Amino acid sequence: MLPLVPFADGSAPPAADSLRERVVLVTGATGGLGRTTALAAAAAGATVVLLGRKVRPLERIYDEIDALGAPKPAIYPMDLAGATPKDFADLAAAIERGCGRLDGLVHAAAHFDTLQPFEQQSPEEWTRAQQVNLHAPALLTQACLPLLRQAPDAAIVFVFDDLDRVGKAFWGGYGVAKHALAGLASILHQETESSGVRTHALLPGPMRTALRRAAYYGENTLIHPEPAVAAAAVVRLLGPGAAGLRGKALDLRPPA
């Protein structure tokens, strides 16, 4: 597994030009962490490819980025739950045609339904959890690797969850997928550590997101911060200054 390292510099925003002339693909761009990451990457100078299920929310984020005066983003609608290997290959080809390069891939998309006993989780929900949280990141990474390898410095960022927490009762398919995703990130790091492609991960603390509300529906999620610190950490991992964090997972959880 990728070793965890604390993220001690969460208060300072990334430099305005730290991702200048880089192209970054963000999945789940309409979600809490995905949207905030897309905005932060654009503010740091990146051309962001926004991947999400629905066009209208993607258009709203496009407008937010455009209002920043940042490089104009690209919109790519895709439902990861039903995506096929060909869909991912077509996406990589479209990025190469439209942008000419790819320097970063952020797996911010996630699917979680509800806490429930394993025996009550429907086969359809189990399959969707594996597809969105594991199969899609794996197959999208595989499709994008040839393009990422063309960049002089590229980064892949996975978003982890606390394995001690999601490995407990009632986390079902989501918990299983997150354990497997951590294994995938470790394998990918070992296979790319001597190349120009860096593998990183992020372990956020509690955030004010829809996934948090679904998992802790009796909790007042307003007590938790917006995903801004997590997004800033992702942008740092995408930039060239994160070379020393290759093969590491930034731990943003508050001290116990």
Description:
The protein has 256 residues and is of the alpha/beta class. The protein has one domain: 3-Layer(aba) Sandwich (Rossmann fold). The protein contains eight helices and eight strands. The protein has helices at 32-43, 55-67, 85-99, 123-150, 163-166, 172-192, 210-215, 228-238, and strands spanning 4-6, 23-26, 47-52, 74-77, 104-107, 154-159, 197-203, 249-251. Strands 1-8-7-6-5-2-3-4 form an eight-stranded parallel sheet, sandwiched between helices. Helix 2 (55-67) links the parallel strand 3 and strand 4. Helix 1 (32-43) packs across helix 8 (228-238), helix 3 (85-99) runs parallel beside helix 4 and helix 4 runs parallel beside helix 6. The radius of gyration is 17 Å and the shape is globular. The protein starts with a strand and ends in a 5-residue tail after the last strand.
